[in-house]
Amino acid sequence: MSRITNDLDSVNQFDDTGLYPAINSAFTLLITTVLMLVVSWQLSIAVVLIAPLVLLMMSFTSRYSGPAFAQLQERTGALNGAAEELITGDRTVKAYRVEAIANQRMAELSDQAREAGTRANFVALTAMPLSAMLSNLDVALVALAGGWLSVKGTIDVGTVATFFIFARTFARPLNQFAQILNMALQARAGATRVFEILDEQPEIVDRSSATAITSVEGAVEMEHVDFSYVPGVPILHDVSLLARPGQKIGLVGPTGAGKSTIINVITRYYDVQAGDIRLDGTSIYDVEQLSLRQQVGMVLQEPYLFSDTVMANLRYSRLDATDDECVEAAKAAGAHSFITTLADGYDTVLSGGGSSLSQGQRQLITIARVILANRPVLILDEATSSVDTRTERKLQEALATLMEGRTSFVIAHRLSTIRDADVIVAIADGRVVDVGSHDELMAAGGFYHQLYMSQFRDGSLPAANA
Ligand SMILES: Nc1ncnc2c1ncn2[C@@H]1O[C@H](COP(=O)(O)OP(=O)(O)OP(=O)(O)O)[C@@H](O)[C@H]1O
Ligand SMILES: [Mg+2]
Questions:
Q1: Fold type of domain 3-198
Q2: Is 0.70 surpassed by the pTM of this model?
């Protein structure tokens, strides 16, 4: 965030207020030098003598201040990051009464930024009066050399007088350079950080031979997939699974088992290290990512809504949907009734992240989104985990209609949600430990059976806290 605000700003500031004077000064210097040489080369030398001194001083300044400005930009970034985090996490800070620690952290980061800023600007700003002094020295040099030359009769007094003006005209742009030097150094430090991002190569890239995939049947196959987010920390081990077109696949397993990770690799948010994933028999690595994701409708585990109207948030999944289609989708998702009770109904503007809605309401809107999206493959990652069991049961019907004819992956801790799945895949520690229908897996008495029994007291009634 700091790079696209603060760092970009420092570049912008130089561009706005520093660049024009810099170009202007460069021209003035050039033209003055030419004019001086035409009038008297001896006096020109006296005037130009200060240029190397000023340049030397500027190079010293940039060598010292440059790194300090880089540090200032970096520390400002850390400060902005911490401010954003603490404001977002404001309730947690209050809940645990750690305001003092939060304040202290901000104070430390502010101090560090101030210290780097002082160091950077102190030297950079010293350049200004120094170069002003040097330009006065210039006038003295012209007086000295001009006096001597005119006494010798080499030049006339008029030329010397002209050179007093030249000396000023020559020194002014040099002073200007010294003045905008700190701005330029800060802009360079900011630009370096902005370019670090611009130069970053995406990890997930389409192969040059990749083609667009259109209108899929929805067969999804994972074959011997190994995956780790961080090198050396394997998360998925030899995961294979097959979803035939139109099947509902239930993914179950303990927290941290790797269920969301499986979804992340199927949709190619991450590339796997070994094995292959195929959609309708084509490796997803031979397919353009954009077209791959166009086949998939997702309700993510963390529903996210934008600071916009409810209607705009619904339409997010299909930009050409009409208002009526959005309302229809909201009705199917069971979101219509609460939306109509909002202050402006569908035109109510939601606050950032949808924080003005309950967690369950947010989920209903994201479900409406996926209904509207109308994609051949569906992914529901804990899509109904935050709604009450009665709402969930009603939703199941809507979702069942939606899933008809589509391949769907449903992740749920509440096992009643996936009981009717065609295939249930139980994951533990990143490995597939059980595959089969509910009845098969119950009969087998393995991992799924244990999981199920721990949730349902007598195999039919949901436990009170389910
Ligand atoms: N971006 C990431 N970088 C590194 N490790 C990650 C990342 N995301 C998840 N993990 C790790 O991968 C493992 C599997 O996480 P995953 O989110 O797939 O679990 P899950 O089965 O979906 O759990 P839950 O039921 O809690 O949603 C966890 O150990 C987690 O710490
Ligand atoms: Mg998960």
A1: ABC transporter transmembrane region fold (1.20.1560)
A2: yes
